[in-house]
Design brief:
Length: 228
């Protein structure tokens, strides 16, 4: 029952930053500004959505709607369907019943960063940013997550946390108003989680939308809660 309420395989050794280096960012750089998505229609809604995987019903009757500046936090035990819900929102998995609607481009942060392990970090992120029409945004996105000094390091040499942040840089560089984040805090230390919270808040303050699925605590003030 769903309750809804407001409120590649790694290669080589991970790259290690120098002792005392920043865990996320040395200097806060706001990637979002008030009204960043002004004039851009953004929205995401689920209407009586059900999900069935492997013949098993994960959830049904799911309803929520998000507008500019809003967020929803998807929680629940392992196997409840959190990742499936994000995939449905991204259009990668059809709902068993119901309807998903929305306006504005969507950017997905999945379990893997989907970055070419043999490319340098900047080149790997730029591959997707170019498809999104925002190739020039890569440098700033890497700086936002504190990875600008690793721009030329092959993705395969990054640590788990660094790869997670690289995936988030790809989302930022996309310029999409709707963020779909699946377990974004995985692999991050406490300081990096706080910065993640700030990035999402900045995105929302600019009129962006965030749908976040997590089993770890993430502060999303005034977010709707979707409990599976």
């Amino acid at each position: 029952m769903v309750r809804h309420r407001r409120d590649p395989r790694g290669f080589g050794r991970p790259y290690r930053r120098a002792r005392g280096g920043p865990s996320f960012r040395a200097v806060r750089r706001r990637h979002a500004r008030a009204g960043r998505f002004r004039g851009v229609s953004a929205g995401l809604s689920f209407a009586d959505v059900a999900c069935v995987r492997g013949g098993r019903s994960l959830f049904e009757g799911l309803r929520f709607a998000l507008g500019p500046g809003e967020a929803a936090l998807v929680t629940g035990p392992n196997g409840a369907g959190k990742s499936s819900l994000i995939r449905i929102a991204a259009g990668l998995l059809p709902p068993a019943t119901g309807r998903v609607a929305g306006d504005g481009a969507r950017a997905l942060l999945a379990e893997t960063a989907a970055l070419d392990p043999e490319l340098g970090l900047a080149a790997a992120v730029r591959f997707w940013a170019r498809i999104d029409g925002h190739a020039a945004a890569v440098e700033a996105a890497l700086a936002t997550v504190g990875l600008e000094k690793l721009a030329q390091v092959p993705v395969r040499l990054l640590s788990t946390g660094q790869r997670r942040r690289a995936g988030f840089a790809r989302v930022i560089a996309s310029g999409a108003p709707v963020w779909l984040l699946d377990e974004p805090a995985n692999g991050l230390d406490a300081g990096s989680v706080r910065t993640l919270e700030t990035l999402i808040a900045d995105h929302r303050s600019g009129g962006g939308i965030a749908l976040v699925a997590t089993h770890l605590p993430i502060a999303l003030p005034h977010a709707q809660e979707v409990r599976l």
